[in-house]
Amino acid sequence: MTINAYTRIAANAARTTLAHRVGFVLGTFGATFQLVAMVALWTALLKRGAYLGGFSLDQMKAYLIVGYITGVLGTALGEQVMSDRIRSGDVAIDLVRPLDYQGMRFAEVLGGMCVEIILVVIVGTTFWMVAGPVSAPAQPALFAISLVAVLPIKFLIFYMSTLLCFWTQNYHGVAWARSALSLILSGALVPLALLPHWLQTLSNLLPFASITSTPALIFAGRADPGHSQELILVQSAWVAILWFAGRLAWRGAVRQLTVHGG
Amino acid sequence: MALIEAHGLTKAFRRPDKAAGLPGALKQLVRPRFTEVNAVEGVDLSIEAGEAVAYVGPNGAGKSTTVKLLTGIVRPTTGEVRVGGLVPHRDRIANARQIGVLFGQRTQLWWDLPVRESLALLRDMYRIPAGRYQARLAMLDDTLDLGAIMNVVARKLSLGQRMRADLACALIHNPRVLYLDEPTIGLDIAVKDRVRALLKGLRDDGTTLMLTTHDLGDIEDTCDRIVIIDHGRIVFDGGLAEVKDRYARERSVHLQLGAVVSVDELTGCFPAAAVTVGDVDRSYTITFDKSHLTAGQILTTVLPLADIIEVRIDEPTIEDVIRRVYAGDLVLQADGDAG
Asked: Cys bridge to B256: A125, A210, A260, B283, which one at CB 3.0-4.6 A?
């Protein structure tokens, strides 16, 4: 049966992720451990009804579970695969495909995400049962939209930092720098409200906050409906800006391409 | 206009100029130095639809870079290229629809999925109608024996199976231009023969072929034209038969005789040939130009001098000619004599 080629790429990517399930599950185990540790830490900090940065323990738990979900999504496939292909020169094969490069990579990452969602649901449910119920999101529709918007933003940040490999021929340095920035400025480590003022300002200027902070605040009920809509608008703006920036970056990157040896 | 047209195609790469050791590495860090290297320099090519062209040259000569320029993977530093009226690096996607590419050293298969899935994706990419797809698969199955590997995960394939699957991927959409870069590298003789038969079939069907290879056996039956590139420049472009006729005229007759005959005596019999003594006792090699002498004449001349115990005749292959070109011993000219 003939289907859209990008859909087929996503399906193949999902199957590839399943083929690598052991490594993938182990990686998620690490992230889950982090979640459990953070919940324990915040439970200690916020005992007996204390508040920090306006967060109650219940809201903090909700914030952390969303942080976990947005942290796991999009990591199974994509970045590593794409940078390996650039360094090894296999990107040459991607370039003789009658498809858009950015679209192919996005389809691949989305395919991997389908499998990740299964895992996230399992871990999330377990968390719910072990760590005690977290109140359901106050604005479920807005939360769902903000979560969906995370996917392209996360992909595009990966995509553009990986394109730097065309110049650096090195992936680890770029990935380290990006994940350090992302950890702080997305609000994955602590909510942005707890950061010093200058870091908050910086995070307002960069797209990272749209990845974790936005859906987490909406889920935890730390943003009222008006503010939530504003945050989602910011997310949409980032999707558009980053998508076109990605196109420009690709145009520059492909000029740099040198494929040696066969 | 020819189907593939390239004019003054040049691709320059920057290569870091590092001095030896740690000081050299630090120096490079502070003030990087680069040398411009022309992987391909001033290449002019014109290939008509339906032509089968062998593109050969020693390692690092610029063969693969040329293919990457023609397929739109890299853009030329200077010069122009058009394939079927399209500029490959500018109209990359449109160009990709009309070409098939095989890089023998790389695979386009999905490594963790059965071969079938990689082919199904290509069907969707090129929007091949179901009937045409099935017919094409059946055709490829005949020569590449795909049936046995369709359901095998790519990473479990042997090299020969992998290459067969990759060939199927390059051919599934029936491209009008086919670039094959080392299609038989690492293959055993049986698979090589099959691949060569397939290439011949494609040429007969009118597919334009550009074949890059180190194994000149690949081109003998398939290609009519040979282009030789060295140090990024084209050093020869002409008919394959013509090259063989003109430059592969040398024959060697190896004889083992029943009695000792002196080299001088033999040289006296064949003034136009070179006579050398072989490793084994009473063995001689007589090398001559086939237009001046025949093996038959040599045998009838030697027979009165001594019994002939063994005879072996060596005919040069296109490979020998190319080897001499690579070594710089021979300069080929499309119309004229060897220089």
From this structure: B283
For residue B254, give how far its alpha carbon lies from the nearest alpha carbon of chain A (Å).
Answer: 40
Q: How many residues does chain B have?
A: 339
As a whole-number percent, the residues of chain B with pLDDT over 70 amount to: 98
Residue B45, pLDDT score: 95
Dist. CA B83–CA B69, nearest whole Å:
11
Residues composing chain A: 262
CATH class belonging to B51-74+85-246? alpha beta
CA distance A157 to B107: 28
List pLDDT tens digits, range A148-157: 999 999 999 9
Round to whole Å and give the CA distance between B187 and A257: 30
ipTM, 2 dp: 0.87
Ramachandran assignment for A56, one of left (phi > 0), alpha (psi -120 to 50 degrees), beta (any other): beta
CB neighbour class for B64 (10 Å; exposed up to 12, middle 13-18, buried from 19): buried
3-class DSSP state for residue B303?
coil
Class of the CATH-defined domain B251-315: alpha beta
A163-174 pLDDT, tens digit per residue, is: 887 777 777 888
Q: In what order do the strands lie in the sheet with B52-56?
A: B99-103, B177-181, B208-212, B52-56, B225-230, B233-239
Rounded Cα–Cα distance for residues A123 and A110 (Å): 20
| Inter-chain touch A95–B73, beta carbons under 8 Å | yes
CB-CB under 8 Å, B117 with A12:
yes
Long-range contacts of A21-24 (CB under 8 A, 24+ apart): A21/A115, A24/A76, A24/A115, A24/A119
Please check the confidence at residue A41 and state whether its pLDDT lies above 50. Answer: yes
> Does the predicted TM-score (pTM) go above 0.90?
no
pLDDT tens for each residue of B110-122: 999 999 999 999 9
Looking from the CA of A249 toward its CB, the CA atoms found within 13 Å total 20
Other C-beta atoms closer than 10 Å to the C-beta of B246 total 17
Partner residue opposite A12 with nearest CB, options B71, B94, B110: B110
Closest residue in A to B98 (Cα) is A98
Of B73, B93, B182, the CB nearest to A92: B73
The continuous run of DSSP H or E covering A45 comes out as: helix A21-45
**Which pair of structure tokens corresponds to residue A58?**
């219940």
How many CB pairs lie under 8 A apart between chains A and B? Answer: 85
Q: Where are the domains of chain B?
A: 51-74+85-246, 251-315
